[in-house]
Amino acid sequence: MPQTGGGEEGVRTADQQAATRRRLENTVDMALFAVIVFAVAGATVFVMSVTIGDWEFWADWKDRRYWPLAPVAALLIFPAGLAAAFWSRFRLPVACTAVVLLYSLMRWLSAYFNFHIFGGFPLSFVWPSIFIPLAIIIDCTLVITRSVFLTGLIGAFLWGLLVYPVNWPLLAAFHEPITYNGEMLTAADLLGYEYIRTGLPEYVRVVERTVLRTFGDAVTPLTAVFSGFICTLVFYIAWGAGLVLNRQAWLKKL
Amino acid sequence: MSVTARSLDLAEHPTDAGEAAQFEGIRWSTYFKVILGISVSFFVYRLYLQKYAFSVGLDYFEPEFAVYWMRLLYGQIALASVTLVGVVFYLWQTRDRNLDAITPELELQRYFKWITWLASYTLVVFLTGVLGAESDAAWHQIVIRDTDFTPTHIEIFYMLIPAIIITGVGSFLYARTRLPMHSKKVFVSLAVAIGGPILIMPNVGFNEWGHTFFYAEEVFNAPIHWGFSGLGLALLGLGGVVTHIVSRMKELIDEVATHA
Q: S-S: A50 plus which of A70, A165, A194, B225, CB 3.0-4.6 Å?
């Protein structure tokens, strides 16, 4: 229906207005895309790096006790925080997957350029963990349940619970037992001995002692369940933080 | 009223010399020049790091280190200081003194320009987070720390972090001096998203102090680094900034589309 737009150009139809609106909105989306990608990728990798970095950097740090717990819980902060913004404001249940996809791409970029090309470590020693399927589970839970509470309870719990089996195809070979100078250790431990780092002896992380170091006890499922519990809590806290930081709050003075 | 008729009155709003006489949306050429310029500069720096970090950057007390790295450090500090002062001076001096009277077209155009500022800020955050910090992580596993001035420190602490400060302060000040909503009040999410990463620079002082006195080696997830984590988490505030930009620009677009 023709509408009067006013001014010297006279009549402007609703179609013309809609076309202008659509063009400008698309421009905003495209311009903001790079901002979001840069910010999410940079922030997530940086925060992970200085919070739990070593578990992501080194194959011999991917143990059964802390690796399925600390990095998994720490990585959930950004996806959950941004999911709060994307879900509450735009009803887009894609934030977790998008954040983790970006994080994974950038970790591989860093593993290759920083640790392999610059530092000289073999890629098989510095590969990052796999989190993408876990992020998809959280987003799918949000879509299906449309409930933040249930997403934390089910999706975030599965995020922590399943990290070990999701990574097992890559990790299994590194946990093969090896006898070396009369001592039993894993292939990953041996790689750690071969690629000596300045932080030694801290970097020789024989963290599993006595009965824990039995290649097949209940360490992994125990950690997985605890990790699921921690991740549920982290999800709720990060979601809340995301909501707070996404409030349109203004101060009169800085 | 048409866009032409509502053309930007530069006499009333004599801020940016580059502001168009009429509404033109975003300037993609500027947007991509900014992204490309920062990326290429970093790439060149990275090539320099790759070539000279291990060949002449292992020992602070070698004369070559002074030539290849300390001169670079002094140059970076000088360049960063001059750039920061220049950016602040320019944005303040060219501020819009009549913000209550700007048209929706002009405000919309400024939002597009602000997005370009934010793109530069987040790109530097990206380069710092993905390539800067972790090259330092790799470096510290190979080379024993001798002083606070290592090639990767010179890269990240005296080039990338100052760049975060310059682009962050520029982004904040651009909004403060040219966007009506930001001129009289401070948007909390923006202050958090920009203030947090800027505070990384002072936190470097704590980090280096700690490494000097009680924690020489670099276990990257050690508590001494958690200050960086907390400040990095402040970038979650960018979610709020994006939400604000989308909602405000939607209002402006509706006005512009109706009147155009």
A: B225
